[in-house]
User: Which sequence fits this backbone?
């Protein structure tokens, strides 16, 4: 019997692995920051067409609407483990004078995914085809300016950090010298600390972490913000080695060269070493807080995430990185890309008030059902009491009759 159970558990696991691990990344950054090129570099294939990305305003104004563009790519590692990677690109972000609607659209989208889970959790019958659309990581692209963060960067991280794991990234790192990159990283981290921006800083519990993980997380923290270089082109070197590179008048660089950017470390962190951590943090901390606040009626989406572990002392910056750097890449060689471009684009709602609407409606329904059951119980009890009362009345009447009879017998005598 137990062997049957073990076998079916193994089968389930295999099926699960066959179906793939679902992982969702949102890439946010101002236009031209290299989001699309990065997505193609991350996936090792042309997922986003970078030649037709110019957005125009919808009317006579100069304001450009933010779009949310979905891409889905299946990546597979050497062991046949599949990752179903959902990527949400955000063309139009930060392109207008007033970008507040951009923030609303992104916040609405994130909260809508949480509401869908809330609804699903409260259903008596689960939908077997339900798809978890929560965003597990938001890569926020910062263009290096030598001035730290801009107001829009601070505002974005402040507003979205409590809802989603934000990992800040310096894009186009090839435009910086070694010293400039170091300087820009420092300025950005100074601003993040100064404004107490709730980014994902590889949190851990000091007493509940292995030495190796401690060193890895501490090292990854020390790299923040990650620097990346992207490219849409691959080149063949020496008639055999193929690299994804950038060609300059003075030579060529390999975007995967760990000496010039953190791209490979970031890719391995996202797709291998911290994929589960990011998913768990999303479910156990971010969603859980959203759920509690929503069900207690107090969610204004302005919640403040204060990562309890963010103050863990940092040390050992030179810690070994084997865990991250040594892992070989997923996906370069693999599989099909399914583009659902522009699928669920602009979704505007006023100041984020109706995103909890569905959850509230479901909650009211549950409350009504509970009240109905309570009412039925009370009715039953009432019926019983009435019956008892009738019985007592009957008994009383019988006693009275008996007494009457007895007294009339006495009188007769
Ligand atoms: N030097 C350098 N240029 C880059 C890098 N990544 C992208 N670019 C270039 O920057 C330009 C914009 O890149 P995209 O990937 O289209 O940027 P995007 O953020 O998707 O832009 P929009 O979709 O138009 O908002 C292109 O000319 C890219 O070739 C990089 O790492 N370094
Ligand atoms: Mg683009």
Assistant:
């Amino acid at each position: 019997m137990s062997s049957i159970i073990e076998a079916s558990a193994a089968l389930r696991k295999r099926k699960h692995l066959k179906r793939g691990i679902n992982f969702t990344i949102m890439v946010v950054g101002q236009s031209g920051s290299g989001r699309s090129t990065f997505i193609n570099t991350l996936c090792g294939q042309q997922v986003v067409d970078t030649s037709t990305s110019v957005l125009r305003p919808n009317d006579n104004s100069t304001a450009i609407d933010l779009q949310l563009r979905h891409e889905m790519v299946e990546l597979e590692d050497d062991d046949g483990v599949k990752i179903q990677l959902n990527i949400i690109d955000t063309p139009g972000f930060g392109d207008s004078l007033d970008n507040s609607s951009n923030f609303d659209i992104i916040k609405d989208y994130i909260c809508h995914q949480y509401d869908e889970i809330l609804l699903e959790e409260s259903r008596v019958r689960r939908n077997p085809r339900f798809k978890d659309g929560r965003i597990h990581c938001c890569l926020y692209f910062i263009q290096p300016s030598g001035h730290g963060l801009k107001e829009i960067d601070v505002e974005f991280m402040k507003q979205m950090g409590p809802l989603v794991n934000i990992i800040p990234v310096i894009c186009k790192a090839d435009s910086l010298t070694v010293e400039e990159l170091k300087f820009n990283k420092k300025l950005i981290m100074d601003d993040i600390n100064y404004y107490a921006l709730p980014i994902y800083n590889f949190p851990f519990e000091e007493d509940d972490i292995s030495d190796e993980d401690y060193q890895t997380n501490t090292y990854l923290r020390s790299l923040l913000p990650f620097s990346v270089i992207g490219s849409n082109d691959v080149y063949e070197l020496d008639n055999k080695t193929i690299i994804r590179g950038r060609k300059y008048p003075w030579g060529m660089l390999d975007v995967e060269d760990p000496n010039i950017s953190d791209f490979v470390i970031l890719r391995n962190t996202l797709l291998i070493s911290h994929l589960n951590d990011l998913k768990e943090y999303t479910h156990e901390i971010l969603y859980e807080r959203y759920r509690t606040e929503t069900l207690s009626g107090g969610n204004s989406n302005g919640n403040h995430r204060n990562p309890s572990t963010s103050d863990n002392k940092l040390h050992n910056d030179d810690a070994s990185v084997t865990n991250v750097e040594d892992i070989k890449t997923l996906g370069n060689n693999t599989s099909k890309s399914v583009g659902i471009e522009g699928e669920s684009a602009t979704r505007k709602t006023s100041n984020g008030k109706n995103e909890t609407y569905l959850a509230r409606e479901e909650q009211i329904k549950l409350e009504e059902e509970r009240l109905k059951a309570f009412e039925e119980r009370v009715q039953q009890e009432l019926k019983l009491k009435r019956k008892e009362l009738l019985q007592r009345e009957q008994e009383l009447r019988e006693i009275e009759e008996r007494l009457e009879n007895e007294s009339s017998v006495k009188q007769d005598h």
